[in-house]
């Protein structure tokens, strides 16, 4: 067991498969000026973590501790910190990494105060996804009543929240899924139309549903396998919001590929929208208001011990996740 001077962490030394994630005992950091030490209670596991581990994203200097979101309790305050107290529940989402550990030092300005009504593990599985959806529907593309939007992977964690939120905003939602079981999940999340992409051509089906007009926006985190079809599904002046690449990187394209119908391509990274305290406060308040109003619901995640980080990645990459996976320190 770690002492008060050490902590347990999953360390990434080299890029590769899930087996490269190893549990270590490392020094526990102390907070400096403007920082807090957070003891984690639940750690979110995301596809971003898989991309970092595989080397597709080379944004974590090695050796390093992956993980971009968690919930926990403030355990110590650095000098000059105001507005937070020891024992306070907080969450965080950050591209600074360090989540796969029992503790993390972080800037106090990045700590998100959590409502008492939401469970730590549910929030750890949902917070970044919900912040992402807040960006997707209000910044990357502003969803308007009467629009029709296409949501790929509609039964996934982000996909379910997107369906909920877009429907609440008055849009008609078309969701793509891979199985009939996932179709039921997407329908329960608010999708008006379901496309089983393994059984039918989603582009042709979108054209049928929209009477040949296409959709105002496509939300695509699949990447390589769906990108061309997503462009083809758009209406004139439509927007393709490509926010992930679960099937692999997208091939290069030219402005002429967008000129066919005056299309817009957006590639948002949620961290860029959280880069100052005011933006973080605005987006997180939107999320907690949406939870309180029942617009979106927290994801009930698969819960695994911190030591089983490799198994968590295997669950995500094999598409067996219930929508969220968390590690418990």
UniProtKB/TrEMBL annotation:
Entry's Gene Ontology molecular function annotations: mRNA 3'-UTR AU-rich region binding; NADPH binding; quinone reductase (NADPH) activity
Keyword NADP among record annotations: yes
Superkingdom as given in the UniProt entry: Bacteria
Alphabetized UniProt keyword annotations: NADP, Oxidoreductase
Domain Enoyl reductase (ER): 16-327
A Pfam match: ADH_N
SMART domains per the UniProt record, alphabetical: PKS_ER
Chain ranges passing through the membrane: none
InterPro entries, alphabetized: ADH-like_C, ADH-like_N, ER, GroES-like_sf, NAD(P)-bd_dom_sf, QOR-like
One GO location term (cellular component): cytosol
Protein name: NADPH2:quinone reductase
Species this protein is from: Gemmobacter megaterium
Higher taxonomy: Bacteria, Pseudomonadati, Pseudomonadota, Alphaproteobacteria, Rhodobacterales
């Amino acid at each position: 067991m770690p002492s008060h001077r050490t902590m347990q962490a999953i360390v990434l030394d080299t890029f590769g498969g899930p087996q490269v994630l190893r549990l270590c005992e490392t020094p526990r950091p102390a907070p400096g000026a403007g920082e807090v030490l957070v003891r984690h209670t639940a750690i979110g596991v995301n596809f971003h973590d898989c991309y970092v581990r595989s080397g597709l994203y080379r944004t974590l200097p090695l050796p390093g501790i992956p993980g971009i979101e968690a919930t926990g309790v403030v355990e110590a305050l650095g000098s000059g910190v105001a507005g937070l107290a020891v024992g306070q529940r907080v969450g965080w989402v950050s591209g600074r990494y360090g989540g796969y550990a029992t503790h993390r030092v972080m800037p106090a300005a990045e700590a998100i105060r959590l409502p008492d009504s939401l469970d730590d593990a549910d929030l750890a599985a949902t917070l970044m996804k919900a912040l992402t959806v807040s960006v997707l529907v209000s910044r990357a593309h502003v969803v308007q009543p009467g629009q029709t939007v296409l949501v790929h992977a509609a039964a996934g964690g982000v996909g379910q929240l997107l369906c909920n939120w877009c429907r609440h905003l008055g849009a008609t939602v078309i969701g793509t899924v891979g199985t009939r079981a996932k179709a039921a999940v997407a329908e329960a999340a608010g999708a008006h139309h379901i496309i089983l992409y393994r059984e039918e051509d989603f582009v042709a089906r979108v054209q049928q549903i929209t009477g040949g007009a296409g959709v105002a926006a496509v939300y695509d985190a699949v990447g390589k396998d769906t990108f061309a079809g997503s462009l083809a599904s758009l209406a004139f002046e439509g927007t393709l919001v490509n926010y992930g690449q679960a099937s692999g990187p997208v091939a290069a394209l030219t402005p002429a590929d967008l000129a066919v119908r005056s299309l817009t391509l957006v590639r948002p990274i949620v961290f860029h929208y959280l880069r100052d305290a005011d933006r973080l406060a605005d987006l997180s308040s939107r999320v907690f208001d949406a939870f309180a109003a029942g617009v979106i619901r927290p994801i009930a995640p698969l819960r695994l011990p911190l030591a089983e980080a490799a198994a968590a990645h295997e669950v995500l990459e094999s598409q067996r996740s219930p929508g969220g996976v968390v590690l418990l320190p």
